[in-house]
Amino acid sequence: MGSGAERIIAEVTAYLIDLTEVTRAEYSAFLVDTGYRAPFVDEPWAEEDWNWSGPEGYPSGTADHPVTMVSWFDAAAYCSWAGKRLPTEAEWQLAVLGSIERDQLFPWGNEYKEGAHNHGSINMPFYDDSDGYARTSPVGAFPAGDSPYGLKDGFGNAWEWVADRRVMDKKEYLGTRKGDRIVNPHTEGPGLYAGVRGGAFFFDLRPNPGGEFNGFLNELRRKSSGFRCAKDLD
Question: Is residue 1 part of a domain?
Answer without folding.
Answer: no
